[in-house]
């Protein structure tokens, strides 16, 4: 390919960039400096202070503004002649449909979550537009090219699922600090500040009928005459004192474990400290995300490990500040690692619990990393990955498909290489996304409802947003804005019906057709009845089998009835696989600092995959 035709291909190209964060900023800069003339950018976020260290197109004064728009303005300052169209929106919005995608020559992803990546993959397949996918975690990174009919699609191979923990470990028997963080974040924080009606296993049921202390959900309700300090003290004693007493009452649990020690406020903080803690100063109101309990308590170093008394003061103060300064947020909050008060609250709560269970306490800095599942981003990795995306995009635009590579950016050299190019893999012939291979759903058709299947399988595992479900020629479920009222009522009724009792019964041997029109994705589920499921191993109470031998996991970080998952990582679901010395390896890229701590005995970050596993068998393109 001569350089003129290359320049011409670049000049003519119309490119869609999804994500204007760490990778996106680098990518936009590299695109325009490489001569690209027309770039559309979708990003749903606004700029946060924590982005500024690496998302170099943004400045302090831009905090709160649209990433896509500010990125455009910043780049136009040094290359004013370029056409850049920003969209401050979610790529899953209906406006970005197949027709929208068709106008582009190539789509470049700089996303941070599996859900959006899967959605873009499906639209690229439907629109037949090549996709260059990317991701980074710390020093690790990856760029892959997905071209319909030529390579595998993004979903041809299952993605690693974030670590989940059995609920009983989180609620009753934590043994690691991360268990306490998950409890503080996904149970306590969610119960106090999120949707109160949501089922949650925060309170341990006591099996001792005569027990006079029975924490209940009502405890969370704040009485009209209860001041924030009283309320915070009550919550403290219930969650760290009575709740652990209730857990201790289940004697079987402690036969082979050391018993935790309930923590009551009166034992930790003398009365005068509590009173001191209750004094609010008036000059503390800054913006919501920066509000902090630490300055009130003379604490300034996030890397210092607070003792139990300090953690208790932070807990009380943070809870009081939420009640007094952020009352409007209560009921709608989800944990956000950029929310200082939320991080302080979770750190303190996790530490107080850790202390009861004899687990070493951690600093706010460490707890934040674990709670946000953060592997600290490395700007240089993003820059390298952005460069590789542009290199692959140019090959795609020149139709130089045989030279396309998927490239891994490694932390340690392998065969003296830090950048490891691998030929793209062939499509998995039984991928339910890019082929029409049916999936198998093993389910108890006599106890599971249609809602279970829609929520746990069709939305959660298959990643469909607006699914339609058909049994033969009968439509049993559909969502959309243009439905008749009668239909909506009918579908709502169907959702709560047991599968076998549906108007068109779903039993062993039934084939369900599920379809998401927006993603132009259709697949078939062969239903097989089974009576029993293992609560720990099959927490959904049903198993989806299909294009791999194993059960399908979507890598989503949702908490289910039986599992509590750690939050998502910046590069959730990115799979890094290389062939090194004839071995197929996967870089474990979704590590929490705790995992890293746990994995310290490994030589490096490479985790060997079972070399004979069918699941990981891939075929090279020739
Ligand atoms: N569904 C989506 N639609 C549009 N943009 C998305 C979607 N999902 C994620 N993004 C964008 O992808 C970008 C990913 O960037 P990055 O990984 O640097 O994350 P970040 O949120 O900027 O940083 P961090 O998570 O480390 O604070 C973000 O700007 C985010 O808004
Ligand atoms: Zn596929």
From TrEMBL:
<keyword id="KW-0862">Zinc</keyword>
<comment type="similarity">
    <text>Belongs to the ubiquitin-activating E1 family.</text>
</comment>
<dbReference type="GO" id="GO:0016740">
    <property type="term" value="F:transferase activity"/>
</dbReference>
<dbReference type="GO" id="GO:0005524">
    <property type="term" value="F:ATP binding"/>
</dbReference>
<feature type="compositionally biased region" description="Basic and acidic residues">
    <location>
        <begin position="611"/>
        <end position="622"/>
    </location>
</feature>
<dbReference type="Pfam" id="PF10585">
    <property type="entry name" value="UBA_E1_SCCH"/>
</dbReference>
<keyword id="KW-0539">Nucleus</keyword>
<keyword id="KW-0833">Ubl conjugation pathway</keyword>
<dbReference type="GO" id="GO:0005737">
    <property type="term" value="C:cytoplasm"/>
</dbReference>
<dbReference type="GO" id="GO:0031510">
    <property type="term" value="C:SUMO activating enzyme complex"/>
</dbReference>
<dbReference type="InterPro" id="IPR030661">
    <property type="entry name" value="Uba2"/>
</dbReference>
<keyword id="KW-0479">Metal-binding</keyword>
<dbReference type="GO" id="GO:0019948">
    <property type="term" value="F:SUMO activating enzyme activity"/>
</dbReference>
<keyword id="KW-0067">ATP-binding</keyword>
<dbReference type="InterPro" id="IPR000594">
    <property type="entry name" value="ThiF_NAD_FAD-bd"/>
</dbReference>
<dbReference type="InterPro" id="IPR028077">
    <property type="entry name" value="UAE_UbL_dom"/>
</dbReference>
<protein>
    <recommendedName>
        <fullName>SUMO-activating enzyme subunit</fullName>
    </recommendedName>
</protein>
<dbReference type="GO" id="GO:0046872">
    <property type="term" value="F:metal ion binding"/>
</dbReference>
<feature type="domain" description="Ubiquitin/SUMO-activating enzyme ubiquitin-like">
    <location>
        <begin position="441"/>
        <end position="533"/>
    </location>
</feature>
<comment type="subunit">
    <text>Heterodimer.</text>
</comment>
<dbReference type="Pfam" id="PF14732">
    <property type="entry name" value="UAE_UbL"/>
</dbReference>
<feature type="region of interest" description="Disordered">
    <location>
        <begin position="581"/>
        <end position="622"/>
    </location>
</feature>
<dbReference type="GO" id="GO:0016925">
    <property type="term" value="P:protein sumoylation"/>
</dbReference>
<feature type="domain" description="THIF-type NAD/FAD binding fold">
    <location>
        <begin position="6"/>
        <end position="414"/>
    </location>
</feature>
<dbReference type="Pfam" id="PF00899">
    <property type="entry name" value="ThiF"/>
</dbReference>
<keyword id="KW-0547">Nucleotide-binding</keyword>
<dbReference type="InterPro" id="IPR019572">
    <property type="entry name" value="UBA_E1_SCCH"/>
</dbReference>
<feature type="domain" description="Ubiquitin-activating enzyme SCCH">
    <location>
        <begin position="319"/>
        <end position="366"/>
    </location>
</feature>
<dbReference type="InterPro" id="IPR045886">
    <property type="entry name" value="ThiF/MoeB/HesA"/>
</dbReference>
<keyword id="KW-0808">Transferase</keyword>
<comment type="pathway">
    <text>Protein modification; protein sumoylation.</text>
</comment>
<feature type="compositionally biased region" description="Acidic residues">
    <location>
        <begin position="595"/>
        <end position="607"/>
    </location>
</feature>
